[in-house]
Amino acid sequence: MDPRLAPVAVDAMGGDFAPEAVVHGGYNAARKGLPVLLIGDEARVRAELARHAGWESLPITLRHASEVVEMADHPGQAMRRKKDNSIRVCFEAVKRGDACAMVSAGNSGAVMAGGIFVLGRLPAVERPAICSVLPAVKGRPLLLDMGANVDCKPVHLVQFALMGEVYARRVFGVARPKVAILSNGEEESKGTDLTRAAAAALRRSGLDFRGYCEGRDLLAGEFDVMVTDGFTGNVALKTMEGTARAVTDLLKQSLMESWRTKLGALIARPAFARVKKHVDWREIGGAPLVGVDGVGIITHGRSDALAVENAVRRAHDAAAAHCTGEIAAAAARAEALLAEGEPPACVR
Amino acid sequence: MDPRLAPVAVDAMGGDFAPEAVVHGGYNAARKGLPVLLIGDEARVRAELARHAGWESLPITLRHASEVVEMADHPGQAMRRKKDNSIRVCFEAVKRGDACAMVSAGNSGAVMAGGIFVLGRLPAVERPAICSVLPAVKGRPLLLDMGANVDCKPVHLVQFALMGEVYARRVFGVARPKVAILSNGEEESKGTDLTRAAAAALRRSGLDFRGYCEGRDLLAGEFDVMVTDGFTGNVALKTMEGTARAVTDLLKQSLMESWRTKLGALIARPAFARVKKHVDWREIGGAPLVGVDGVGIITHGRSDALAVENAVRRAHDAAAAHCTGEIAAAAARAEALLAEGEPPACVR
């Protein structure tokens, strides 16, 4: 951990198991030397902290926020009307420099809205994206956008690629990230008007752009950054979750069918546990917001203490990479890359 | 099998392992009483048949086709320029009534083009679809379109739903198919202009329409017919394939890591085999073309004899259902369903 950094602001009220699981996760992070600023209903947060021995000697600070964004709340309205909501107070702590980053397991639309509302978009960024980190067979590829932007234009896809490349390089330490656009086939002739325009611009970008990838590449680990519109990204992400669950359910069912296979499963248990840990979203550390002026991480609504602790670590690492300026500079290239491919005005 | 039906025309030249695997699969189907008409280079087909004892006494007939559509061929051009290609000759056999249906493991774009070119679209159908049959935890749900139509309008999605519902009911025997549109969330407010317009029309359709489903529902078996544009459908299908493979690969790797887990895997082997069979695409019987005037089934390019045999059975069952007229009648309802939701002309 970087001792020069301010603590990570943690939305103690966000998620299905808040504040209990969130406070517990923050406490565990602090025990490992990562300073946290817990934000939420102070009495409830204190009551939760009281259950953890010796928290007073850890790098844990508190800040009160009197309101909570519910899952059913409209993100934009919640940010405007509930002025003292815990998500907004987290972002304000980042804005003021009291925190180096924020983490929330709450309403993900509201976290995105709060990031844009309080921190603001980076200068050239048209649409910040939610960046999913995938549990691939090898590596941890990024998929942008996972659902914030349903209708996309070429400039958005190009910016997702440019920003994701910086993130993969600076936060995940991939020396030269391989970038691709998710499409319905590898050939250049495939795709839509949207993907073809974005691909043409990225071929001129100087990135290690590999053209189109397909759904089957998402978890293979051959690419480091894959971009798509938020509709397709959301469908793909949930399809991965559903397929992993279907295969696991079928296997469990099948292993329980006879005495023999039950025994085999018992003996092979360490292997199942390893796979489970590898694909466990709680180990991933959440999905960063990319394109806002600061670091925010969205974690799963069902986050437990382990998921929160890992998200705090990821947030801290992202802040320590100090790459917001580089992301802004990368995004600013998109318009020019797209314009280069257009015929001169006199020919149009 | 239905003794009144003509044989199934099988494209003996299509697929990575043609003609060997295809002829073998046709032979196996014929041994089980399903008549086949093998279409392709007659000398090569006869040479393959000669390897299978007693084929002369089975319901196998041959028809020569002098040309082959290659995987790299442009589908439409191949249909026009290679007039005697095996895919086209298969469809012509269906058109004339010499075959009840056709099966091909060849260039899937060319199979779609051949179906439209030779059989024609059903009267009201704007875009025939490729209908994927999914190996769900329970049942065999349909996903349309899996890639034929990248850019879709609401009328296409509505027709996919109306046609798929007939197919699920008449060919798969689902009494009242549950129909949904694939989207980025279950709430009505989610989706795109495309999905919202299609959903509004389907709510008026009298089908058992359940609104939006998500990627995680594809293999859960809660819905019988799920519709989406061909771009998203193709990404979702390949994401399922890739995820199933990633989970399987991780598990295999992990099981091989120690003596203990190797032993467990050996003992539990029957359970792994059952799961493998359940998700085996070769058991699925291929993807039907829906919306052309006749029955065509596209099977995987890597089809072996088992895959071809199952596709012949599926093609025979689809022909025996005699539901082409009902599919046409269903598709014809789409425009009116969409128009009902529009304000009267004087208000616009």
In short:
The structure is a homodimer of 348-residue chains. Chain A has 348 residues and is of the alpha/beta class. Chain A has helices at residues 20-31, 42-49, 75-81, 86-96, 108-119, 154-170, 193-203, 230-255, 259-267, 269-279, 305-320, 324-331, 334-340; strands at 8-11, 36-40, 60-64, 101-104, 129-133, 142-144, 178-182, 208-213, 225-227, 287-290, 296-298.
Your description of this structure?
The structure is a homodimer of 348-residue chains. Chain A is of the alpha/beta class and 348 residues long. Chain A folds into two domains: 1-125 and 291-321, Isopropylmalate Dehydrogenase (3-Layer(aba) Sandwich), CATH 3.40.718.10; 129-281, Isopropylmalate Dehydrogenase (3-Layer(aba) Sandwich), CATH 3.40.718.10. Helix content of chain A is 45%, strand content 14%. Chain A has helices at residues 20-31, 42-49, 75-81, 86-96, 108-119, 154-170, 193-203, 230-255, 259-267, 269-279, 305-320, 324-331, 334-340, and strands at 8-11, 36-40, 60-64, 101-104, 129-133, 142-144, 178-182, 208-213, 225-227, 287-290, 296-298. In chain A, strands 3-2-1-4-11-10-5-6-9-7-8 form an eleven-stranded mixed β-sheet, with helices on both faces. The longest helix of chain A has 26 residues, at 230-255. Chain A is globular, with a radius of gyration of 21 Å. Chain A starts with 7 loop residues before the first strand and ends in an 8-residue tail after the last helix. The interface between A and B is large, with 62 and 62 residues. Chains A, B: It comes from Anaeromyxobacter paludicola. Chains A, B: Keywords: Acyltransferase, Cytoplasm, Lipid biosynthesis, Lipid metabolism, Phospholipid biosynthesis, Phospholipid metabolism, Transferase. Chains A, B: Homodimer. Probably interacts with PlsY.
